Amino acid sequence: MSDVSPQLIDRLLAISRALAGHIDPGSAFRATAIEIGTLIPHDHIDLAVLSQDGRMHACYEAGFHTSWSELAQHPVEGSPIRYVLWGKTPYLLSDNALVDDRFHFAGAFDGPIFAAKLRSRIIVPLRARGSVIGALNISRHEIGCYTLADVAVAQQCADLIAPYIFALIQTEEARRAMLAESETRNRAELLRVGASQLTEGMERERRRMAMDLHDQTLGDLARIARQVSAFRSRGMARTAQLADLEQEIAGCLAELRHIVDDMRPSVLELFGLRDAVEAHLNRSVARAKPPIAVRIADTSDGSADSLSETMRTALYRIVQEAINNAVRHAAPGRIEVLLTSTDSVFSVVVTDDGHGCGTIDPAAQGGIGHMHTRAALVGARLRFEPAGRKGGTRVLIEIDRAPADGKPATAGEQQAVSEVASC
């Protein structure tokens, strides 16, 4: 350091002080850009930081931004400074990068050089633990602004900030790994709690169905059996009696179909989500007093068919519960269901003009709690909101037509979701 001037030492110390207190690489670098500018005047400055495997790099810019920093990462093989990032050259110095072939080759992401008119350029490596972790890039619009002396100063700046940037990168990656681990644990806990809640709900539903069968259907069948026995003992039956008997048998069959449909949505399997929702909507309001008007519209162009069977069934169950809640508790005059779709999201909206639902607790037991659990299990977004100033409720369910996080569920998660969410 004997050949380093006191002025340079002061500036390097200023850069060191500027780094202090920052917790991410981008803000730390931007804090040093002004101080670096006092040593090496520039119109543009950026850091290219390598990923752990060395195949990709991210760009952090100070001052005006270019398309280099618009994408999260770029392949190193397409970078105009790849030879510095690969460690094949100790630096790059150019009087006019617009015509310098080292920055331009087939597949090079060199558009910003031309767009920002970055002519004079210095590129020096960032090193930490004996390896290149990125590069410091300094540019000006004018031609021939930099010398080898500037390269040496730029390298000293890079050597000073590299360890700090490296530490921040490691901290950021550790934080992401911790968040990913936490997310995995949360998903597992969600599946466990969701399965438990839905299993309890299914058991209550089984008991309800058993009571319905015992109290109504079996009672009706027993009465019909007694009537048939009476006819047999008398040896004859009048036409009116047979007609009443036929009507009672038809009623029993209708009730059994209703119970079976609740257990297994066959219309959904045979005809799709739209027809299944319409069938349930019409069945739910059939006995309502006063009558409830209904409307269903599908502008999704059959997008539900692109969802998995598990997704469709879970979505049907959520919509089914939304309709049931409106009919049983809101005293609506009208219920509408709308199926819509964009390139990325499939949505179902259930709207009623009833009393409204008030404050919704996602953790509540019962129907609404089950709706939230089913939605969470299949990655859907569920929202309750007022339908208008005069009251009513709007239930919005949205499902991404592709995984939001890009990560498939594990085999165990897929099986659990398939078995639980569609029950």
UniProtKB/TrEMBL annotation:
Q: Which Pfam families match?
A: GAF, HATPase_c, HisKA_3
The UniProt record lists the Histidine kinase/HSP90-like ATPase domain at: 310-403
State the UniProt keywords alphabetically. Answer: Kinase, Transferase, Two-component regulatory system
Q: Name one GO molecular function term.
A: kinase activity
Task: Identify the residues that the record assigns to the GAF domain, covering every copy.
Answer: 24-175
SMART domains on file? GAF, HATPase_c
Give the species this sequence originates from. Answer: Mesorhizobium abyssinicae
Protein name (record): Histidine kinase
Q: Which domain of life is it from?
A: Bacteria
Sorted alphabetically, which InterPro entries does this protein's record hold? Answer: GAF, GAF-like_dom_sf, HATPase_C_sf, HATPase_dom, Sensor_HK_TwoCompSys, Sig_transdc_His_kin_sub3_dim/P
